[in-house]
Amino acid sequence: MTRTRRLVWLAATLLAALTAVPRGQQGALRGEWPTYGGDLGHTRYAPLDQITPANFNNLEVAWRFKTDNLGPRPEFNLQSTPLMVRGRLYSTGGTRRSVVSLDAATGELLWVHSEDEGARGAAAPRQLSGRGLAYWSDGKEERILYVTPGYRLVALDAHTGNVIPAFGRNGAVDLKADLDPSMDLTTAPIGLHATPIVASNVVIVGAAFETGANPKSRRNVKGAVRGFDVRTGRRLWIFKTIPEPGEVGHETWENDSWAYTGNTGVWAQISVDEELGMAYLPVELPTHDYYGGARPGNGLFGESLVAIDYRTGERKWHFQLVHHGIWDMDIPCAPILADIRVNGRTIKAVAQPTKQAFLYVFDRVTGQPVWPIEERPVPQGDTPGEKYSATQPFPTRPAAYARQGLSVDDLIDFTPELRAEALKTVAPYRLGPIFTPPVVSRADGPIATLAMANQAAATNWPGGSYDPETHILYVHSQSAVATLGLVPPAEGAADGVRYHQGTVLAGARRSGGSGSATGQAGGAATSPTVQGLPLIKPPYGSISAINLDAGNILWQVPHGETPDAIRNHPLLKGLNIPRTGRPGNVGTLVTKTLVIAGEPGFGPTPSGERGSMLRAYDKRTGADAGAVYMPAPQTGSPMTYMLNGRQYLVVAISGGSYSGELVAFRLP
Amino acid sequence: MPFETMRSRVPAIAFALLGVAAFAHNFDAFQQVTVWDGIYTREQSDRGEKLYTERCARCHGDALQGIEAAPALTGPAFYANWDGETLNALFERMRTSMPQDRPGSLTRAENTDILAYMLRSGSYPDGKLTLDSQGGALTRIKVLMYRPEQK
Question: Whole-prediction pTM value?
């Protein structure tokens, strides 16, 4: 080798080493889809290029798998993202959250595993088929791991579907008993609908609870995160999301509220960087989604992104996105690992999409924000007993990718008459920017706070996608209005819960009094509508492409054809309304050329047939790149794989009267 | 058609005609019926409201607004799933999958009452006709967000 050649070789090797991407964020490799997010960094990216803008419209159904008989009755909300490894597809499905293995080429059922958990399953706070499962292999043995509705971690032989007797007790770890042996194993309201994630030989699981708008008590089970040995089921560590005396963050719980407050679980997907040995936990808010009077203080690690050592559970860093949360913002989806280049510097970053439409971007080694996140004063309220945070963190980059809060400028304006009615409709409500607090509902106003990007999530559990080659992140968001009002609990205030979510209108209704309809579709107790139309201007749903090197939004397109209810509205006759997009929770998939996502809800289809379209966009520009018909909307997130030289797209669909089904597409 | 076969079908045809006649008691046999046609009674919806509060509100909210995983049962989000469907499709979904903690535990009549309450909450007019819990009757009624004549 000549000196010059050696230098070139050395430079090439160095360059390769510098640009090498850790396993976590390369996307799904080898044509497989081995983990919920495609890889452990949840990029939902696959570098496959057989399906392109030129042929997307030619896709045809390769196979379907109906989940009706996996449980005792059909399920109508199939949210799974299946996995594909070595020619086999794995998914949860059905009302008992059964596990199936299918031939990935034909959809033929290879095995099914189902657990009848009896009363424990029936009492579970998070029922139905869940979001999927996890796969593990040491090169010889292959296992499937999933969490049952009754909150048990089960290990199965991926070849046969049989339980692994050596795992836990007879193939399962009782996640309730492991957390607290004194817990009522049947009725304790804790579970999980997210998938476990396996990093190296550690299975990591979080916790979910009943929804938190109307808790009976300020007390609840606490949502710790745990790591288990994938071979034995032995617990390796526990990370308590509500710190105990002497632990970091304990001081943020005033009046000893740490002792009784619960929730603060990690119900969303967890991400892992195996190279750094870190797991990234998106933590939800503590007990009570809208009233924090019983838990004064910032309440760490509520609504915090927490990095831990996934081999020990030791906390490495944290950043609280919302202090003392009272908007049900949670952190609803997987943090996305992204190696980016900002001002000439390579940063191992983690990007967190949120219900509040901020994308928070951190150096995932240190927890430092990539672009400054500023504490700014926020609106205060006057709910008795509530102690508001005076400030909240505001990312300076990228800009919010969907509308937040609500102002009169956001109101519907298709016609002057509709706008005038919208103004009249919102008059008895409190409007304001993001972090405008809920109000105690009064008949003479305010009835409630109206706002977008909170409980009415911009981005919810499906999260986003990331292209590790171009450093572009893709995320769906909806724009919908939530009604944030507080009323005394119908059964009376008890155990620190002075309010429940509601309004005086709903309260009167519940008491059984007049019970009258309110004269407008939707009813005044729900988020108000205007002549049956959304209160706000479109778009109602969008996909955004965000350049993570620059921290700016590259493009945004409305996602979903304009609903018939708008297109055919009698008051909009003759108006030319561009595509509005549709509200809903939508997961995206990125490939070599495309961003792919199904429309939320049923809508108009080109054939006129009842159904919904699976859409593709040119990932560089957001331009339409095709659409194929599905008989029901996407309710899981699409995934893709290569098998026998052909690229497949699989998506879980369901909704309305259409029960859960996996549909696989491929080119003819 | 051979006479014998024809004769053997007479009772069946007569029975079917009787069924149509019974149904015509409520609606013209070939008329398009929608949720706008006063297809439930106030009393039904009052019973439905009580049942809804006891069995449904915990998940779907006091005002049918939906809470996280449980979808709204009124408003634009609801019609995204059901506009254009038959009332029977909605009824069957309720009957087979709800309430989630004890599916199938409500009778057909109770489910129909809850359906009546959902219709009232959507501002569909009540009327003198009683919503019939039999699938055949419900199959003929369409869920339409807007009055058809206004389209």
Answer: 0.91
